[in-house]
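User: Last request for today: this protein with manganese (II) ion, please.
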Amino acid sequence: MIVVMKPNATPEQIQHVINLVREYGLKDHPIVGTDRTVIACIGDKRAVDKGAIENAPMVEKIVPILAPYKMASREVRQERTEIAIGPAGATLGGQKIGVIAGPCAVESREQLLQTARAVAEAGAIALRGGAWKPRTSPYDFQGLQAKGLEILAEARAETHLAIVTEVLRSETVQQVAAVADVLQIGARNMQHYPLLEAVGKVDKPVILKRGPSSTMEEFLLAAEYIINAGNPNVILCERGIRTFEDYVRNTLPLAIVPALRERTHLPVVVDPSHGTGHAHMVPPMCLAAVAAGADGLLVEVHRDPEHAYTDAAQQINHHAFCAMMKRARKVAEAIGRDM
Ligand code: PEP
Ligand code: MN
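Assistant: Here's the final one, the structure of the complex with manganese (II) ion:
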């Protein structure tokens, strides 16, 4: 349920309600809006005397949260959540569409630095690059791991781009969070609940990728795990789902963008690289994602895609990325957003 405070409630009156809620054994999540504060209360409501809470000073009303995902739901927060990422003041979820770009994997210092410079120059706000790679085959390149993190940190120091990199297992969350500005949870791990709880305890935003065979509701419930564990800064990433169609690596369901924006206040990012699997499809689908209302893009960019160690077919080169950015800005302008 949500306790809606009246617009001029004081911090003491809000704290009084929080104490009451805690007395009933519920977990409180105060959400401070521009107009008023609401307190989302999560837990078993059966023993709660709603009348007692409703009678507290400056409480306007109590409303149930109908969605199964509570904190991620727009019922709890109408305003969109804008999440700050990285060292240069960039955000995702606001008026400005943000682009996260970089190679699938960190392969070498020179490779990453060259692409970091190119995407920064073209206007990206963040650099992506996997240090640990989730590979279908155990014999494939698994990433440079700790060395990859060092290289990412060097790229940030030079370019001031925020660093986005995947964390594969709970045991390495602290190690990755020490370098990354944003932790990526890969599609394969969307329902790895202990990992979701582990990143929920860290003070860094999380990009949660949609599992290739998950419904939208399962996707939002996965986000709920992270928020419920204590981290409200979750960015949702649609990266394509598995269907019968095989001319693409995954089917990119862009209709989820307006659907998510209606149901959740969290920022929504689209990854057309994994969403199509083919480099030539990536720029047009970036434009389509912007047109559909995405708050950001996640794009794989490589200096020499033909020789990439991972995901070679879908990475676009520096030139194609730059050209895409120019066109995407025009689409953003056409729909009243900045980029
Ligand atoms: C990636 O971003 O390189 C990646 C492994 O993505 P996904 O988890 O969406 O497959
Ligand atoms: Mn990849």
